[in-house]
């Protein structure tokens, strides 16, 4: 194809997805900065030579840029501007998510049906959140007493597309929004233990937290103040805790091991439910099982043992499966699904690898005092020793 053509939408999205500024892209493509700005805003059409140069930098074919790749309708993340993360990084993740959904649509991949319930209660009422969370668990195929064995795949079964991020966004391990109506959750992958270790329990809670945003704040605009941001974060935290550790079964397990909230008991409950010890302290305080002074004492003990960053009991990292399976089903006969998708769409293989490969390694050596136990097995009377039996206390939820 010869002549000039508008390509602004595709260029702008891929540039942002790769974390490049407009001037950086212009410099690498050998295009004047002013011309680059006009190309991105479709004020002028790009020449064939410019399209060729841009496609090389953006790792795609010229035909990919020439297609009508207008921006998809993407909602904004619910956290207020991610103030502690570079704005370019946030924009990069949003653009990358849009590129992934656009690619899946153009490749005619089969999405999992969206069965996410939408919250209609009072988000400031904890009882309403607990009741609604039970409904979402039912939609995910979980029984009242079931442990969430894999939070990432549970989110996928509900119709979310879960993709890894290279690193945290400031203090945030995750991000969620909707792209062209599709619920997308991004969560930081765990690389090598020396530079970027993300415990499995933190990944699980992050995915549950972002799921909370998707189902509770579906029609709510991103917060425009720190107070509003803190309020909806608290709501998503409550949802995540209730989703991963439903109240009655959690308290039943506590009672089976003596009914006292101690570090030893919390470690056993973490083994069973895959929830961090500190998160369980918060959960029991919210449920009225322990008072503030008790929680404060536990936090001091946790700090004294240096568990703030390295808790005992290893919870495995998780990864998504939908995209890899969908690509294999669509291009498996060609031997290399990533290569097949790349050729069919004209988008570099590196994009598909970034979206589908989590590169999770065994991190046991990177965590202090790690104990590899039978994660996901509920506590039962058969597993208790004689000393712990007979100490059961019934603690009603308040």
From TrEMBL:
Pfam families: HTH_3, Peptidase_M78
Protein name (record): Helix-turn-helix domain-containing protein
Gene3D superfamilies for this protein: 1.10.10.2910, lambda repressor-like DNA-binding domains
Stored CDD domains: HTH_XRE
Lineage top rank: taxon: Bacteria
Species of origin: Leucobacter triazinivorans
Entry-linked PANTHER family: ANTITOXIN HIGA1 (PTHR43236), BLL7220 PROTEIN (PTHR43236:SF1)
Residue ranges constituting the HTH cro/C1-type domain according to the UniProt record: 11-65
Gene Ontology MF terms: DNA binding
Family membership: Belongs to the short-chain fatty acyl-CoA assimilation regulator (ScfR) family.
């Amino acid at each position: 194809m010869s002549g000039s053509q508008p390509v602004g939408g595709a260029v702008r999205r891929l540039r942002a997805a790769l974390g490049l500024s407009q001037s950086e892209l212009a410099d690498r493509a050998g295009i004047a900065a002013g011309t680059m700005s006009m190309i991105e805003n479709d004020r002028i059409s790009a020449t064939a030579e410019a399209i060729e140069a841009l496609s090389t930098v953006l790792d795609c074919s010229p035909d990919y840029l020439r297609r009508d790749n207008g921006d998809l309708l993407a909602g904004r993340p619910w956290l207020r501007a991610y103030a502690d993360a570079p704005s370019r990084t946030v924009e990069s993740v949003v653009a990358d998510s849009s590129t992934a959904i656009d690619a899946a649509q153009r490749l005619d991949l089969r999405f999992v049906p969206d069965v996410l319930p939408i919250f209609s209660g009072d988000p400031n009422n904890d009882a309403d959140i607990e009741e609604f969370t039970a409904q979402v668990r039912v939609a995910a195929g979980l029984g009242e007493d079931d442990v969430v064995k894999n939070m990432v795949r549970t989110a996928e079964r509900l119709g979310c597309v879960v993709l890894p991020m290279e690193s945290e966004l400031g203090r945030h391990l995750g991000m969620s929004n909707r792209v062209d109506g599709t619920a997308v959750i991004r969560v930081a992958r765990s690389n090598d233990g020396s530079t970027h270790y993300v415990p499995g329990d933190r990944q699980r809670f992050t995915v549950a937290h972002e799921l909370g945003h998707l189902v509770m704040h579906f029609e709510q605009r991103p917060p425009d103040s720190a107070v509003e941001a803190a309020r909806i974060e608290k709501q998503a935290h409550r949802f995540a805790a209730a989703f991963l550790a439903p109240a009655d079964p959690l308290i039943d397990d506590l009672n089976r091991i003596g009914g006292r909230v101690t570090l030893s008991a919390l470690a056993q409950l973490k083994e069973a439910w895959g929830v961090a010890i500190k998160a369980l302290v918060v959960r029991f305080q919210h449920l009225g099982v322990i008072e503030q002074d008790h929680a404060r004492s536990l936090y001091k003990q946790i700090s004294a043992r240096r568990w703030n960053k390295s808790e005992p009991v290893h919870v495995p990292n998780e990864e998504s499966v939908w995209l890899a399976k969908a690509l294999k089903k669509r291009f498996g006969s060609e031997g290399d699904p990533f290569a097949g998708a790349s050729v069919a769409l004209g988008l570099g293989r590196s994009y598909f690898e970034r979206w589908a490969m989590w590169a999770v390694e065994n991190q046991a050596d990177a965590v202090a005092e790690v104990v590899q136990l039978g994660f996901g097995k509920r506590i039962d009377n058969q597993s208790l020793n004689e000393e712990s039996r007979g100490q059961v206390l019934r603690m009603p939820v308040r």
